[in-house]
User: Which sequence fits this backbone?
């Protein structure tokens, strides 16, 4: 199966290029800094008569972890866009694709191979980085998020969604155009999620629909909410529930995990976009 | 189909919107031929190559490559291609690029090492096999591309401007490589605008202009014998006309130009001119070059 050959080549390219090295070094720096920050949480109550409680530590640590992981998901999505948007277009522009596609390889194998290689790169980066971060937080403040595996699935799912869209763009547009478009759409979906939350708070059907539609059109924010939910301790969810619907507009809060039907929709979405990318590239004139 | 021609096209055409890149290409290239596909820039040469390799679909017409329809996987396995826009993964070494193409071409893994070593040796890159492609000069990258096209002893090698980045030594090397391919029975489709190069190595040529084939055949057919220029005075119109039996006659006043004349008949021609009362001052035999023919076909002043 030549798709595997292309996937291996794509992975090799990303690992050998500087982008990955820079990402790796910066990630290590960020993890070191945030771990130091987390280690300071237990001493937060030192200047007041009553020492900080275990519940308070968990609340602060979970909130901080959500913020850190939001940055992590943001970097992951950005990197996925920047890796995927030139993945095909740059090879077509430079001529690398000409020599390869004159071989007995189908466009389907080529596009699917690119996709597999990009997904593999995301996994290779995201799993160790997130795991190390969560382990270190557990070591220094004794806090573990309640659903670490689900978190990984949601945050990687978010990256795969934006990566697949960028790859689709890459079959037609230059890397820069595809990259900028991917990021703008990603930002719009994030804001769409907030708008939908505001709709819930004010019981405004139109705004709620905007949120729902944006979650369906580009499932990144929907998956991000799932990632947030995975990181929240039960006490925090209970407290927010007591506060009512107001919390829904907060992009760093989710009361419930996404329903299974939504997860199924995300899988259908990714598969359809990949199929569209294959179709688009099959019709592309080289 | 082993006896099918290497390439056969029928009314092959490609249009991009209102622009006609290739109008109607009909040609047959027998197996083992070194075929020169000539034309000025923008004539449709690269388009034709891309159509033949299934990189872009034709607007109309059809074609067969090695007896199979365009884009057939088994046929593509037996085709080597050096694109005009030759670029290879800059983060790979030359050996890795060749290994990648061995894999894509479906060459038996056991043969890779020998194939790669042979390809590097043929194109003169044996000592740079472990170098990253990104550090290669353009000429070296084109040599590597030629090596890629030769992997697996293909039945058909398509070379699109294979010497565009090479120095005179490199050009000479490429000519020798193409000759060796011809001796081995490999069909070579050479896209070029370097006429002297084509004239030196090709058996047959087709000349395209503005998307159409304006002439095709063997070099002998195309150049059609020699030309002789004679400076003679004292010949009247009837006398000059009678000389047309020796070849195609152009009357330029004192200068008479006879194209397609058999050189053995030049003394006879001069004898005739003298007999007709002409006074001969100069006789200049000239072999028409492909360039002369090319320019004449394209309607350019020579």
Assistant:
């Amino acid at each position: 199966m030549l798709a595997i050959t292309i996937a291996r080549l794509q992975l090799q390219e990303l690992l050998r290029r500087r982008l990955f090295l820079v990402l790796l070094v910066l990630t290590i720096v960020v993890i070191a800094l945030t771990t130091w920050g987390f280690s300071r949480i237990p001493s937060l109550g030192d200047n007041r008569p009553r020492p900080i409680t275990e519940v308070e530590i968990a609340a602060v640590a979970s909130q901080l972890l959500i913020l850190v992981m939001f940055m992590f998901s943001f970097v992951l999505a950005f990197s996925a866009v920047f890796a995927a948007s030139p993945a095909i277009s740059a090879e077509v522009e430079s001529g690398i694709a000409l020599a390869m596609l004159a071989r007995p390889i189908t466009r389907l194998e080529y596009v699917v191979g690119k996709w597999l290689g990009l997904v593999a790169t995301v996994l290779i980066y995201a799993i160790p980085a997130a795991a190390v971060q969560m382990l270190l937080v557990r070591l220094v403040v004794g806090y573990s998020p309640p659903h670490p595996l689900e978190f990984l699935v949601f945050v990687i799912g978010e990256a795969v969604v934006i990566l697949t869209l960028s790859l689709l763009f890459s079959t037609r547009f230059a890397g820069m155009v595809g990259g900028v478009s991917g990021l703008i759409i990603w930002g719009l979906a994030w804001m769409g999620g907030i708008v939908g939350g505001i709709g819930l708070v004010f019981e405004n059907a139109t705004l709620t629909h905007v949120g729902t539609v944006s979650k369906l059109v580009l499932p990144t924010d929907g998956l991000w909410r799932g990632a947030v939910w995975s990181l929240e301790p039960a006490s925090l969810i209970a407290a927010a529930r007591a506060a009512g619907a107001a919390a829904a507009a907060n992009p760093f809060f989710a009361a419930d995990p996404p329903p299974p039907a939504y997860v199924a929709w995300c899988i259908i979405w990714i598969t359809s976009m990949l199929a569209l990318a294959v179709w688009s590239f099959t019709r592309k004139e080289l | 189909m082993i006896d099918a021609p290497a390439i056969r096209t029928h009314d092959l055409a490609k249009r991009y919107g209102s622009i006609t890149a290739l109008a109607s290409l009909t040609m047959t290239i027998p197996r083992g031929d070194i075929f020169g596909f000539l034309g000025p820039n923008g004539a449709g040469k690269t388009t034709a190559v891309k159509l033949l390799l299934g990189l872009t679909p034709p607007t109309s017409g059809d074609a067969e490559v090695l007896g199979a329809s365009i884009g057939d996987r088994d046929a593509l396995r037996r085709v080597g291609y050096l694109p005009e826009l030759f670029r290879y993964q800059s983060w790979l070494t030359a050996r890795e690029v060749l290994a990648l193409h061995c894999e894509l071409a479906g060459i038996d893994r056991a043969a890779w090492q020998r194939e790669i070593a042979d390809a590097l040796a043929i194109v003169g890159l044996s000592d740079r096999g472990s170098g990253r492609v990104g550090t290669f000069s353009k000429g070296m990258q084109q040599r590597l591309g030629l090596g890629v096209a030769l992997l697996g002893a293909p039945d058909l090698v398509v070379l699109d401007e294979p010497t565009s980045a090479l120095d005179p030594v490199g050009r000479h090397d490429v000519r020798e490589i193409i000759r060796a391919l011809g001796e081995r029975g490999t069909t070579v489709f050479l896209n070029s605008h370097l006429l002297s190069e084509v004239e030196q190595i090709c058996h047959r040529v087709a000349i395209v202009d503005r998307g159409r084939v304006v002439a095709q055949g063997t070099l002998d057919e195309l150049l059609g014998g020699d030309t002789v220029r004679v400076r003679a005075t004292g010949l009247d119109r009837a006398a000059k006309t009678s000389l047309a039996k020796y070849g195609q006659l152009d009357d330029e006043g004192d200068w008479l130009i006879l194209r397609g004349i058999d050189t053995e008949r030049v003394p006879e021609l001069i004898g005739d001119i003298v007999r007709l009362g002409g006074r001969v001052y100069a006789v200049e035999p000239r072999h028409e070059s492909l360039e002369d023919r090319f320019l004449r076909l394209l309607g350019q002043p020579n």
